[in-house]
Design brief:
This protein is an alpha+beta fold. The chain is built from 2 helices and 2 strands; from the N terminus they run αββα. The longest helix is centred in the N-terminal third of the chain and has 23 residues.
Length: 75
């Protein structure tokens, strides 16, 4: 029987990622400034809403870059 340890580790990591993502989706609407930053574009017309969260995407990108840098630095 082949060694299944790498597959098990991969499944555990994917499970943790899904739990963190799910928790973020539950908590995100309760954060007051996310989606309402200066630089987020919202266009409302009759029956049409276009939302482009430029500033929010930039903030999330910076946070994830810092987190990735910290994880790499600690390894």
């Amino acid at each position: 029987m082949p060694d299944l340890a790498p597959v098990g580790r991969t499944l555990i990591v994917l499970g943790v990622v899904l739990v963190v993502l799910g928790a973020a989706l539950v908590v995100a609407p309760k954060i007051p400034f996310v989606g309402r930053l200066p630089g987020d574009i919202r266009i409302e017309r009759d029956g049409l809403v276009i939302y482009i969260p430029l500033a929010t995407m930039l903030l999330v990108s910076i946070a994830l870059s810092v987190l990735a840098w910290l994880v790499d630095r600690l390894r």
